[in-house]
Design a protein that fits this description.
By secondary structure, the chain is of the alpha/beta class. Helices cover about 45% and strands about 15% of the residues.
């Protein structure tokens, strides 16, 4: 039997209190890793509530902290807190992302810039901040999207950001190879998270006709690919984008 055991390892998952981030953080924890996740402390208090629930679930093996991926100093403090509590950093999963869907004709500068800032520029800043702290043999996994490959209607900002993540992943994998840090991206199709549930029913039905497996993905199915990329089984995999989409290619 080949088992994935991440005991003694420490992972950071950005935006890890909901959706794919929560599923990923939970699975890494189940594999034995200690896990730190940040969250956005929004005015409505939703992020804080989810953080409290996650903290209760993770116990002493987890660190849950408010930190905005758009702000380098907040993320620097978050990584310092992670090192202070767990003593090391092995894996970074850049998961935090937002949607501001609108056609190009109607999209505002604010909607464009908000998505590019959170979904692309923050991946650069967080990776740049974290990479000196990563142990040799560490991993960075960036969350891309099928939208960055196919370019979904009404997602010029989101698709552009995720396509940029794929290109960024290729470059960073070259730059960190000398330290044996593998850098890869995962590009999910539509997944049954809150974000996936926000897609209108008519659009969901049309999407299903294009997926050979005839269903949307489960969060754990994406998390399991990230678990693989964090494991020694992926030691010769870097600079790649793993497409996890049920066979959907347009």
């Amino acid at each position: 039997m080949i088992a994935i055991d991440l005991s003694g390892k420490v992972a950071v998952v950005t935006g890890g209190v909901q959706g794919l981030g929560k599923a990923t953080a939970t699975m890494l924890l189940q594999a034995g890793a200690q896990v730190a996740v940040n969250y956005f402390d929004d005015a409505a208090g939703v992020g804080r509530q989810r953080a409290e629930e996650t903290a209760a679930e993770f116990g002493d093996a987890g660190l849950i902290m408010a930190a905005d991926v758009r702000h380098r100093e907040e993320m620097k403090a978050f990584f310092e807190a992670t090192k202070a509590k767990f003593g090391r950093l092995d894996f970074l999963v850049n998961n935090a992302a937002i949607l501001r869907d609108r056609t190009i004709k109607k999209m505002s500068d604010e909607e464009w810039e908000a998505v590019i800032e959170t979904n692309l520029s923050s991946v650069f800043r967080v990776s740049q901040t974290a990479s000196p702290l990563l142990e040799k043999g560490g991993r960075i996994i960036n969350m891309a999207s099928i939208s960055g490959v196919l370019g979904f209607y009404g997602q010029a900002n989101y698709a552009s950001a995720k396509a940029g993540v794929i290109a960024f992943t290729k470059v960073l994998s070259r730059e960190l190879a000398s330290r044996r840090i593998n850098v890869n991206a995962v590009a999910p199709g539509v997944v049954l998270t809150e974000m996936g549930a926000s897609i209108p029913d008519s659009a969901r039905e049309q999407m299903l006709t294009q997926i050979p497996l005839k269903r949307f993905g489960e969060p754990e199915e994406i998390a399991s690919v990230i678990l693989y990329l964090c494991s020694d089984l992926s030691s010769y995999v870097t600079g790649q984008t793993l497409h996890v989409n049920g066979g959907w290619w347009g």
